[in-house]
Specification:
By secondary structure, this protein is mostly helical. Helix content is 64%, strand content 0%.
Length: 137
């Protein structure tokens, strides 16, 4: 029997769920897929002729992947923002496949294992942290 980690929800609280691994790998692969689009690979929202793609897929996607991988408190929120961005861009550019993949990512983040790994932000905790930073009570 595995030893419980102090403050963990169960014996597998330290084990990264497969859902998180898949999302992280997908986001981490975004810069490579963007570079491959220069060579002609056109999938989802990856395209060489849109300058915004290099920022979104070269910086934002790997950053969100890092947050998810390292279990950062804001990882879930960052993933939702990025996936919402992908959904809107896919709808705007008429890329149904990109919309479907982004929405699938949102659905995967709703699974219990993903919710345990990357819980939702709690507004009361955020306000308390901001008050501490500001030096007020």
């Amino acid at each position: 029997m595995r030893a419980l980690v102090a403050g963990s929800a169960g014996p597998d609280a330290r084990r990264r769920p497969a859902v998180i691994t898949v999302l992280t790998l997908w986001l981490a692969a975004a810069p490579v897929l963007q570079l491959l689009s220069v060579g002609g690979l056109r999938i989802l929202n990856f395209a060489p002729d849109r300058p915004w793609n290099y920022l979104a897929y070269g910086l934002a996607a790997p950053y969100v992947a890092l947050l998810l991988w390292r279990r950062h408190p804001r990882a879930r929120f960052a993933a939702y923002v990025f996936l919402s961005h992908e959904t809107v861009r896919g709808a705007h550019l008429h890329h149904g496949d990109a919309v479907a993949v982004a929405l699938l990512g949102v659905v995967l983040l709703q699974l219990p294992s993903a919710r345990r790994w990357a819980p939702s932000l709690r507004p009361a905790e955020i306000r308390a942290r901001l008050r501490r930073l500001a030096g007020t009570r």
